Amino acid sequence: MENDLIKNLxxxxxxxxxxxxxxxNLNLDIPDLITWCKNGVERSDNISxxxxxxxxxxxxxxxxxxxxxLTIITAHKKK
Length: 79
Description:
It comes from Clostridium boliviensis. This is DUF3781 domain-containing protein. With 79 residues, the protein is α+β, with helices and mostly antiparallel strands. Helix content is 33%, strand content 29%. It has a single domain (4-77), classed as 2-Layer Sandwich (YaeB-like fold), CATH 3.30.2310. The protein has three helices and four strands. Strands 1-2-3-4 form a four-stranded antiparallel sheet. The N and C termini lie far apart (25 Å). The mean pLDDT is 93.
């Protein structure tokens, strides 16, 4: 699926607080969380945009990415 999120994959980033929130919510202890998220976006076949955010479903998780700044806001495990 080719969309603006995939086209700008190299620009995806997060803040320090976002990094901590993603790590805590997904219970991940990996050294390069941003690369993990970018790889997840590439692998996902379920990407949708609702308003100002992209929602990416991958590996039983949902990543929330701001569509304008391409900042990963948060991530949650699917319920």
